[in-house]
Amino acid sequence: MMAAQTTANEMAPISELSDAVCRNLIGVMTDIDDTVTTDGQLPADAYAMLERLTEAGLLVVPITGRPAGWCDMIARFWPVAGIVGENGALAMRYDRKARKMHRTLNMDGPLRDQNRAKLNALADTILAEVPGSALASDQQYREADLAIDFCEDVEPLAQEDVDRIVSHFKAVGAVAKVSSIHVNGWFGDWDKLTMSKRFLSEAFEIDLETQRDRFIYCGDSPNDAPMFGFFPYSCGVANVADFLGRMEALPRYIAPSHGGAGFVEIGERILSARKGLNNG
Q: CA-to-CA distance for 37 and 44, rounded, in angstroms?
């Protein structure tokens, strides 16, 4: 069951997120690119907010389209409880006491290899048919998907070109999701939400279906729509407004600032309401 859908006119300012909701939270899940980051950079105060939320006793879990290679580093070094990567293809959790990485993948090796061959062929087609597009610079670190860059390290493409990239994925039966920088595509039935449910169940014995009101999800772009539609207290940074009309679901609340500054505003609202709880 999905949360009631929010329209553009119904997105409330983050200041209206109630103290009661914030004090009832057990976790914060967040996209990374253009949600925690700003213009491709990780601001010090946004990174510090991840640590502050963790120190307040919350499970902090980035949910990203970034690749497995990045996820390994983030799970090890960032102040987070774990990470879901490649739009739900995988999850990682680093046990710091045991010094052991726990990995969850949505497909076995042989199937992953078969799908990789199909995605490689599709990449050749897309790059030939959509001038100006490119493989994402982090493609070589990916386990399960294909990321086509339309504005991270290339000149920004027109919206019709982004739509053409999506059409190429769909034409061969692949799933395609648009982030703020890439079109990610894969063969499989997962997304950010399905792996988030699996990860929290296996790692922390949390049933996200019944505990969704105890988490906040933060995001900014169309590939966050499944999360925005699921969590009743989802939050967007201000740049979510750039995608109005192109998202299946919108966040319930919106921060006044873009990117990392907006994430900090969301975190400050949560922490201010939780003073006196745990270590917050």
A: 10
- pLDDT score recorded for residue 280: 46
pLDDT at 115: 94
- Calculate the CA 88 to chain-centre distance: 9
Task: Provide the b/e sequence for 169-204 (b: ≥16 CB within 10 Å).
Answer: beeeebbbbbbbbbbbbbbbebbbbebbbbbbeebe
The Cα 219–Cα 76 span in angstroms is 22
Q: Apex CA 209: angle with CA 194 and CA 263, to 5°?
A: 70
Please list the ranges in the chain whose pLDDT falls under 70. 1-9, 278-280
How far is 258 from 260, CA to CA, in rounded Å?
7
Please tell me the predicted confidence (pLDDT) of residue 5: 64
Give me the amino acid identity at 182: H
Sheet strands (E) in 112-203: 134-135, 146-149, 175-178, 182-186
Q: What is the pLDDT of residue 1?
A: 47
Q: How many helices (H) and strands (E) does the chain have?
A: 9, 13
Q: 6, 31, 34: which is closest to 248 by C-alpha?
A: 6
Residue 177: phi and psi, rounded to 5, are: -130, 135
pLDDT at 23: 98
pLDDT for res 96: 94
Give 103's DSSP letter: E
Q: What is the DSSP letter of 78?
A: S
Which H/E stretch holds residue 253? strand 253-254
The pLDDT of residue 109 is 79
228 and 247 in contact (C-beta within 8 Å)? Answer: yes
Q: What sign for the dihedral angle of Cα 126, 35, 85, 247?
A: negative
CA distances from 10 to 5, 7, 233, 238, 254 (A): 9, 5, 13, 14, 10
